[in-house]
Amino acid sequence: MVRTLVALSSLAACLAAGIAFADPPAAKPEAPDVLVVGDSQAQGVAGALIRRYLRSKDFHVIDKSKIGTGLTSKSTYDWDAVVAELATTEHAKVAVVMFGANDRPPVRIKGVVDPTLSEKFGKTYGARVEKIVKSLRDAKIDVLWLGDPVVKDADYSADMQMLNQVMEPAAEKEGAKWVSLWDLGVDPDGSYDAFGKALDGQTKRLRADDGVHFTPSGYDLIAARLDPILKTLTTAQPVASTPAPAPPPGAKASADAPPVVQPAAAITQ
Questions:
Q1: CA nearest to 70, candidates 117, 111, 129
Q2: What is the pLDDT at residue 198?
Q3: 198 Cβ neighbours under 8 A, 6+ residues apart
Q4: For the chain, how many helices (H) and strands (E)?
Q5: 33-234: CATH topology
Q6: Where are the domains positioned within the chain?
Q7: What is the DSSP string of 223-257?
Q8: Under a CB-based contact definition with an 8 Å cutoff, are residues 101 and 70 in contact?
Q9: Which residues of the chain, if any, have pLDDT below 70?
Q10: Which distant-in-sequence residues (6+ apart) come within 8 Å of 3 by Cβ?
Q11: CB neighbours of residue 269 within 10 Å
Q12: What is the pLDDT of residue 3?
């Protein structure tokens, strides 16, 4: 009986020691920061991203959008300076950028697009897009630049298309990834449609009453489009394991390590 008690006591001590010296569970890595900058459209996208990752915690969304702003004028809000500061203070992994709702190109004379004004606007606006992307990329932040969608008014849609044609090459030139939204909130012919299939497969209103912005259901579709791109950009690449070096000839193998099998010599005829 005494021997049994001693054996049990020893077993308990060994188990306790094993528990005490066991490696603690690995800490869950912090969710990557996603910085959102831009106008009221960007604010809608930020809200959708926050809703999407509220429970999954895949990303931490930092909403730095500001309604009523754009890139056409620095007098109302200097996005160049703001983004340059955010790039150094927020330490985000990815930035989602969207502009255009307040940046209709002033290139028409009596309703007709003037080629000279169009060229001048394209150079100025494109340079601002490049500057913003460069500030973010210099801080090692990946950039997703969202294109503008089709809107209800035909002339307004033409302006958004013109902006996309300026923004896409400028953003890509500095290393941003372009994400088109031209096919969201449209009918099968590509024309504006306020209703469409939501994430749950049900037909819902996707566009707001102003014919420009999206409803929460519409912005949720944008967030769903961004989700796989964000995950691809932030997924860590696995580190290849390095095999242990073979022991020198004549060395005694460790008792805890399996014997190292040397490759067979090549057979020559």
A1: 129
A2: 97
A3: 204, 206, 217, 220, 221
A4: 6, 9
A5: Rossmann fold (3.40.50)
A6: 33-234
A7: HHHHHHHHHHHHPPPPPPPPPPPPPPTTPPPPTTS
A8: yes
A9: 1-29, 236-269
A10: none
A11: 2
A12: 52
